[in-house]
């Protein structure tokens, strides 16, 4: 029998905040953690995508911890070589086809030299293409040996025709490299879409891989992506680190890109920037925060003052029935959100089915395939752990389980 989830929850919160502090300001004393907490720290480092970064800055004296970080750094570097080779091939094929693509987020940060190979893991490759060129981009991916896995409102996901995902803890060099194809850059916050595609598409696209139009456009995308994850309680420490490192390169003009064009003010940028500034206080200009405060709705602005990384990330063990409702900007939006939670639209049901079919951490989980009414009743009667972090916790704690045990069991307790 593994520890009660109330103990796991406390350990996740403690280790999450400690790792965030160490990544932002390396050199802290080695924590006085027990074996359970050290293993939970490995789960948190994996879930937040910061294991290889910690390898380069964290000098905590715990041998299993150090070996784990070094192994993760090696796997990420080897996998980066595969990703880089794949991007070069996509670039060549796109040039030959006269097709313009934009590599997004992690690939763009690497291209700018913000990260060295092995420092930042990339779960997949994100590519942006104009709607009119989507069919040509899909054909290019099919010729590369990819097949479509599923489609949702944000993107279409392609996976290699061969290869299986790695079922262990953390990054692995042989994990297949999926590709997410986007025609727009947008997030639902929580039900109304925010679209910044016009800022991200290149102004004069050239065949092959194109950079973002500016550092400010890249920052806009990172902030909107982080906002979407905060709204869904899925933020990662890596997102804040990306924002902080890029912020160091931004000029006043780059920050002004957030307000460029005819789009509505970037009210959604305040919560992720505030949280980034809490951990990286010297990275975010106070003038930018002050300007964003005027754009952000009162409720969200108030709540974001006290949000912690744990609270808005996968480190928050319990599911929240109405997570993200504070991002609603009107009573009407809040009402739509509540209706969708009580009676999900067909699109949401199909998306859940696709996730249950394609995501390793959801395989065999009755909760995911249960009728929605049953899930709602469960939310109202007892705490329900998140499947994503629970999968990683199980992998991290497996060595603590009795050797005869075939299946890990966690006790749910407040």
UniProtKB/TrEMBL annotation:
This is Nucleotidyltransferase. It comes from Rhodanobacter soli. Pfam families: NTP_transf_5 (PF14907). It comes from the Bacteria.
């Amino acid at each position: 029998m593994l520890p009660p989830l109330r103990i796991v929850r406390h350990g996740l919160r403690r280790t999450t905040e400690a790792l965030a502090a160490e990544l932002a300001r390396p050199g802290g004393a080695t924590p006085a953690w027990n074996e359970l907490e050290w293993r939970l720290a490995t789960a948190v480092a994996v879930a937040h995508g910061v294991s290889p970064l910690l390898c380069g800055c964290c000098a905590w004296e715990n041998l299993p911890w150090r070996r784990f970080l070094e192994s993760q750094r090696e796997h990420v570097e080897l996998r980066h070589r595969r990703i880089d080779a794949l991007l070069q091939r996509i670039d060549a094929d796109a040039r030959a086809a006269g097709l313009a693509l934009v590599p997004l987020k992690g690939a763009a940060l690497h291209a700018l030299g913000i990260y060295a190979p092995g420092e930042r893991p990339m779960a997949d490759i994100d590519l942006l293409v104009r709607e009119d060129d989507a069919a040509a981009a899909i054909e290019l991916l099919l010729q590369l040996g990819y097949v479509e896995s599923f489609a949702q409102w944000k993107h279409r996901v392609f996976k290699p025709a061969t290869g299986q995902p790695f079922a262990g803890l953390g990054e692995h060099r042989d994990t297949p490299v999926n590709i997410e194809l986007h025609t727009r850059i947008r997030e639902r916050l929580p039900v109304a879409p925010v679209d910044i595609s016009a800022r991200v598409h290149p102004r004069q696209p050239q065949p092959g891989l194109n950079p973002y139009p500016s550092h400010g456009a890249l920052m806009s995308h990172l902030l909107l992506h982080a906002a979407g994850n905060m709204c869904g309680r899925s933020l990662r420490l890596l997102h804040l680190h990306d924002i902080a490192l890029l912020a160091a390169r931004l000029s006043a003009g780059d920050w002004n890109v957030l307000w460029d064009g005819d789009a509505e003010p970037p009210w959604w940028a305040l919560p992720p920037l505030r949280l980034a500034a809490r951990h990286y206080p010297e990275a975010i200009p106070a003038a930018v925060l002050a300007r964003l405060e005027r754009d952000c709705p009162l409720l969200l602005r108030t709540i974001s003052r006290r949000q912690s990384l744990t609270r808005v990330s996968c480190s928050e063990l319990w599911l929240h029935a109405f997570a993200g409702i504070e991002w609603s900007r009107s009573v009407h939006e809040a009402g739509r959100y509540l209706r969708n939670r009580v009676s999900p639209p067909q699109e949401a049901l199909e998306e859940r089915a696709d996730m249950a079919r394609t995501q390793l951490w959801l395989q065999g989980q009755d909760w995911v395939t249960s009728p929605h009414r049953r899930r709602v009743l469960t939310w109202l009667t007892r705490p329900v752990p998140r499947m994503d972090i629970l999968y990683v916790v199980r992998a991290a704690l497996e060595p603590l389980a009795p050797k005869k045990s075939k299946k890990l069991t966690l006790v749910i307790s407040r």
